[in-house]
Design goal:
heterodimer, A: 350 residues, Glutamine Phosphoribosylpyrophosphate, subunit 1, domain 1, seven-stranded antiparallel sheet, 29% helix, B: 246 residues, alpha/beta, Pectate Lyase C-like, eleven-stranded mixed sheet, 3 helices, globular
Chain lengths: 350, 246
């Protein structure tokens, strides 16, 4: 059991982190105080063109020079700083969060059609698997992630998320079941422009991990949700599927439902299932995935985890509980429970 | 009648439930809760002859193990209102989330609008205890999953909220699901079969239809005049050979 909430303002009007803090805090019962986190899109307008690379250091003086050196091989560190944090009574600062604003040099990866993204992807995988004591937990442009082991309100106050603004926020309150709670295991999980929050467990993790690692991704977070971020990067960014079709690959219709579809839909869904069989995710889950222009929410095919949506003006909300949405927007309308396995998509229009 | 009013705004469910229990033991017959927002476990295990009127959106497991009270909710409910409820009534002026009336063993739950997935999962009955779930709107997959007893009555208009999801009565081995209009047998779950609802079956549901219509200010006659089907276990022991071999 975990609690998730997400909001996108389709006209890119920014919101402070104060209200998502209250909403996630209302769902404290869904967590165990061992992990909480938030992501804000649009958080660094002054460095909007740079990749905001967030790192947890075990010891800064010992490890940071190695990370600096790796980054310098592939581009320019425009600015870097320790992420400001504020002591909380029950939150032990086990890691030192740091952020780099980084510009990769596209000429250094001529074989790629998206060299900047692929350089950063390479750096994330290399640093996370080869520099002990450094973990890159966020690497997108204009995206800030705030996560740690603690309750939602403590983690929010630890980073003072009310001081940040974003047009898209996700929040997650963790109740770790299969792996220990630790900072890197808190959600949201991020890779490049993707961020993921997830309630449930992906029992097909072993299959999904083997599949995604064959494409050069390296799992380093000791928990299942990580594969969702990598699968979206592979299927949507690299294979150019739409987010809706990617959801059909991860949570496909049952074969007997496919048999009842019109012929063209049946052929499409059959092709997706056959092509992306190893990406199919089993087990109970409700997931919200964000990228700079959209959020998409979906559950497993037999709806073993809750998910509701609501709208208000230009905003779409997706959450585990209706009450959490109402904490953020008391007059929210159109409260709806999406159909199992069906994607709910909110796109920016501006 | 002694009435107590509690402002639940910003309150955690533990002090809220303590305040409710104190009021009941002090002799309150009616308790009004204002500004409820996501508090779970309201009225759980509560006994006695008391009316709770809830304004807002309560959290999960409203009225779990409750035995006797009546809860009227002016708002939507989250997951599992009426979870393992023993006696009493829950009336929801709105919709409800997944697993409504989960493992319910007695009493009645009325939902004006729709319910989520697995409504009535593992409802049961024994002797004079026969729980009833009445839903005014649509329902999602796995209605009455593993149902062992009791009655689910789905009154949603088949023209506006037809059954379009799988697993109705999946694993049902007791009790009865009555659905307005008709359903495609494709949506029946394992171990379930569909039968027409005969006259004696209609007589059985009419009092609950009238009670439902009364709570929500509706005219019961169009509901009573419509046709229904029932979903019941495919035999008296549909899973006799599932886990044991004789």
């Amino acid at each position: 059991m975990c609690g998730i909430i997400g909001v996108i303002d389709r006209s890119r009007e920014c919101m402070s982190g104060a209200s998502i803090r209250s909403a996630l805090s209302m769902m404290d019962e869904r967590g165990s105080g061992e992990g909480a986190g938030y992501v804000a899109y649009g958080a660094f307008p002054e460095y909007a063109e740079c990749y905001a690379i967030h790192v947890f250091f075990d010891t800064v003086h010992e490890t940071k020079p190695a990370v600096d050196q790796e980054l310098a091989k592939w581009g320019t560190i425009v600015h870097d700083e320790e992420i400001p944090t504020y002591e909380q009574r029950n939150l032990r600062k086990i890691h030192t969060p740091w952020r780099y604003f980084f510009l990769p040099d596209p000429n250094l990866m001529p074989r790629s059609t998206t060299p900047e993204d692929d350089i950063v992807l390479h750096l994330v995988m290399k640093i996370n698997s080869s520099i002990p004591g450094a973990l890159i937990y966020s690497s997108g442009k204009n995206i800030a992630i705030f996560k740690a082991s603690g309750w939602p309100e403590e983690v929010a106050d630890f980073y003072r998320i009310q001081d940040y603004k974003g047009y898209l926020w996700l929040g997650h309150n963790r109740y770790p079941t299969n792996t220990p709670g630790w900072w890197g295991g808190a959600h949201p999980f991020n890779l490049l422009h993707w961020s993921v929050v997830h309630n449930g467990e992906i029992t097909s993790y072993g299959t999904n991990r083997r599949y995604i690692e064959s494409y050069g991704y390296r799992c380093s977070m000791f928990t299942d949700t990580e594969v969702v971020a990598y699968l979206f990067d592979l299927l949507v960014r690299r294979h150019h599927l739409s987010p809706e079709i990617a959801v059909k690959a991860l949570a496909p219709p049952f074969w007997d439902d496919i048999d009842r579809m019109p012929e063209d839909m049946a052929r499409l869904n059959t092709a997706i299932r056959l092509t992306y069989g190893p990406a199919l995710m089993n087990g109970p889950f409700a997931i919200v995935v964000a990228r700079p222009d959209a959020i998409v929410g979906f559950t497993d095919r037999i709806k073993l985890r809750p998910l509701v949506t609501g709208t208000s003006g230009s905003r779409l909300y997706i959450s585990s509980e209706e009450a959490a949405i109402r904490v953020m927007e008391p007059d929210v309308g159109d409260i709806t429970m999406p159909r199992a396995g069906e994607p709910i998509l909110g796109r920016v229009v501006a | 009648m002694k009435t107590v009013r509690i402002d639940a705004g910003g309150m955690h469910y533990t002090p809220l439930n303590m305040a409710i229990r104190e009021a009941v033991s002090a002799g309150a017959r009616e308790i009004i809760l204002d500004n409820v927002m996501g508090q779970r476990f309201i009225a759980d295990g509560l006994k006695g002859d008391v009316l709770l009127t809830i304004h807002g959106v309560p959290g999960g497991d409203l009225g779990m193990f409750m035995s006797g009270p009546t809860c009227i909710v002016h708002g939507n409910c989250d997951h599992a209102p009426g979870n393992t409820m023993d006696k009493g009534t829950i009336i929801i002026h709105g919709s409800a989330g997944d697993a409504v009336a989960h493992s319910m063993r007695g009493g009645k739950v009325f939902v004006r609008d729709s319910v989520g997935y697995r409504a009535g999962i593992h409802m049961k009955q024994y002797m004079d205890k026969r729980p009833v779930l009445v839903v005014g709107g649509g329902f999602r997959a796995f209605l009455g999953e593993y149902m062992a007893g009791g009655l689910i009555l789905a009154l949603g208009d088949p023209r506006t909220c037809p059954a379009t999801e799988r697993g109705i009565g999946s694993g049902i081995h007791g009790g009865k699901i009555v659905i307005r209009g008709d359903i495609d047998e494709y949506y029946l779950g394992v171990g379930a079969r569909k039968l027409p609802l005969q006259e004696d079956g209609m007589e059985e549901i009419i009092p609950f239809v009238r009670e439902f219509a009364g709570y929500f200010g509706l005219d019961p006659d169009p509901l009573i005049g419509d046709s229904y089907v029932q979903v019941v276990p495919s035999s008296s022991r549909p899973f006799a050979n599932k886990y044991t071999w004789e």
